[in-house]
Design goal:
Elements lengths: L4 E3 L7 H22 L4 E7 L2 E6 L4 H9 L4 H25 L5 E3 H27 L15 H27 L4 H39 L13 H33 L8 H4 L15 H11 L5 H25 L1 H10 L2 H4 L9 H6 L1 H29 L19 H4 L2 H26 L10 E3 L2 H9 L2 H4 L6 H6 L3 H10 L6 H21 L3 H15 L5 H13 L3 H9 L6 H13 L7 H8 L2 H14 L14 H16 L3 H14 L6 H13 L3 H14 L4 H12 L23 H4 L14 H10 L11 H6 L24 E4 L2 E4 L8 H6 L7
Parallel strand pairs: 1-4, 3-5
Antiparallel strand pairs: 2-3, 6-7
Helix pairs in contact: 1-3, 3-4, 3-14, 4-5, 4-6, 4-14, 5-6, 6-7, 6-16, 7-16, 9-10, 10-14, 10-16, 11-14, 14-16, 17-21, 20-21, 21-22, 22-23, 23-24, 23-25, 24-25, 28-29, 29-30, 30-31, 31-32
Length: about 850
Amino acid sequence: MVNLEIIQGFSFSMIPSLFLAFLAAWLFWDRVVPRQLKGLQVAFKTGDKRYEVHQVTESIDDVKHLLSLRGMRFGVLSYLMALTGSLLFLFEFIAVRMELSEGFHAPSVALALMLIILPAILSSGTSLGAQVIRPLGTVRATMQNNTRVRNAGYVALTISWLLLAIAVGLVLKSRGVSQTHQISIAALVAFSPAILAYGRILGSSWHALKQSSRQISKGKSSPFHNHLPNARQQFIAQVVHLNLVAMPFVAINTLVSLLVLLYDPTMFTHSDRVLNLPEYRLQSTYMEEGGLLGFGLIELFSHIPQAGIRVPIVTSLLLFLLLNVAAVGFLFVYEVARILFLDIQDVSGVGGIRLADSRLLRAEPVQQASLLNFCFTGFAGQSMLLLALAMITFWDSSFLPQGAACGSWESSVCSVLEKDMLEELTWMLASGGQVAFLAVWGISLRRSGQLYDISFDASMDEDRTRLRGMSDMIYVKQRSVNELVAAEDWDTALKRYESLSETKEATLVGLDMVRKTKATMLLFAALGRWDEAEETAIDLLALKGGRDAQLSRMVLCAASLAQRDMKEARPRLDLLPDDDIEAVRLKWISTVLNKKGSLNQQTKSMLSIDPLTNKNIEMLRQYGVAEVSRPRPKKVKTAFDRRVFLSEIARMRMIGKSEYALNLLEEAIEVVQDIDWVHGRITQSLLNFDVGRVMTAVDLAERISKEHPRNPHVRSIIIQYAALGHTAMPSSEHTKIEWLFELGSDWRITWPKHTVAPAPVLESELLRQHAWAANAWVGLASEHGLEALQKSRRSPHNDLPEELPLALYTHLSGLLVTIGGMPVDLGLPGTFDLDSVDGKGLLTLS
């Protein structure tokens, strides 16, 4: 086995190795991987020290569907390439050991090297990018896909890092360092990002994994596994637990061994008894024997005279020490997936890597695929590289062709991949992973005790699913919050919201949480606090696991449009159906606000007969010519029509036609006298205030306040009057579902959370910028007029007045849509281009 050769050219004897490698890789991918990824879970925070644990992949079919998603293609290809390359090396070695071949076939070895090295480079680049470039969704939950710019950034970062590794090699060469050290150190630098990622993820999550695997191995349920495990799950948990227990000791051994090696490389030399063993081969350094621990075990077991007992024991122990990182990286790629899906690194440790919002991971397969893609690209390549190196170099690389045995490769491939370099690189990569793990594990120790203070509930989702079909009966067909808000019954809506916060029976807690989150989402949306509405919509998506998610997705789309985040809106809109009129309206508004994109003819046909879209088109045409139309008092039969009418009243207030607007509003109130139009009546008070009838205005507002004390529009206007000294300040709204003007803190800082409502006063440039981006109709209040602001080449917001009509924000609207029948405002940015929109046929729809 010493003088094996590299066989050049094609040979039929290489076909079995190629066939078996590809077949084994396919079988592993088709049969083993789906089973390993079955039962992925995600944990997300639902309260103080309380987490819910939800199942993501409940069956093999779920896993296969996840692996087939578009976002997984890159990771799948990388993983299969590295796996096939390692298997090809393995089968070539087996063929040689079984004397089915006289040596290694050059085409097979070349293919294996390419299949392993390319994914290893991708692994390093992916790991580096994940740690340097802030991933989307870590600060704010987002569904945005990586843009071309971000992907280009990953590529540039990878190339830059590889150039750095080459530069390190050149510096070492200039200092006279041997070629072996040059190449091994440069390769260590090149692959170090993946090693660091390995240490950060496993080190920060070690405590949680150990606690869970210990419980399961004992046949008990764990915080992350709510059911009693079967025999297979117990066995797997036992293996994982033993590995986790050993990892800190192996890492400490590696660190101490490295320190001793740096201090004196010749300090430890084997006794003559070991040197005389027939199976022992002298190594360049004891790191190739597993460090000090391996050195000591070899010395200890050398006292066993029977080779049949001694050799297997020593071999297996050294294999564990040498292959620890490689095997853990290869086998734990699935554990890494579980760690990242659980998103528990902040709970069990520090220094972890966060790649996505855990709430979106629960609900969105696209996010799940993206995270799993990182697991395969970021870990598989580096782990397969280390596994292949460990296979090649174990026991002194006795089967590695060198010198003349390499044939035409002697001065090229074999001069670089020579025995000493490969052995040194193997233990350096393994040691790097263990030291990185030890560092993160050590600083995470202080958090380990906190796990016992945290409640992980893995049964809530099952209870919620079980009771979901009974929810209507449990809650006696209560009117939904969106219906209550549409009917302006804010008092009942807020009482309903409060009741869901009260302690209930344990079996109803899950349903109450869903209903409270849904109520919060809708109330914030109705109030125009889109940042909070978006966050609660994501919470609701996670709690419901993406089921019955139409309302949540609608709110998410509306939030993105209100925030003018078109990149965010695009993937969210793609999840909406094309046959729902409310969803189609949002897609139309997205196209109106975005200079790119268009609508198909079917969508235009639906919208052409939609009265709500036609009202929005009419409003846009009026904005284009800076015209304030006369509101039509008889067109106020629906909640949407009444919202449009009040917005037209707001525009009249800005141009000083409050008296005329008051007459029109009183006529409209008579038309709907059978409806308690609270918003119309409180606006009537504002119009009286505008024309100087202060006592009448305040008296009317006080009477409405007694009838509807918790309506946020009523409360806000009463607070405005109280600030002017005309009435008493009302009691605070303890639910915090209110206009931010009412908060005790400086509302001027928090007001931009009302993304489409201009502030009560525009006394700073920040508030003027916000007002122009939120609803450009405020330009009517400028002394130059809206038309002049539209044509202004400098910053138009600078010409906005500091003072606006009192509480204008309560009823000025831009583009209006409905969500579950509830009208919501998406504003109108000052950058709106009527000609561009008209050119795309979005104002004719014929």
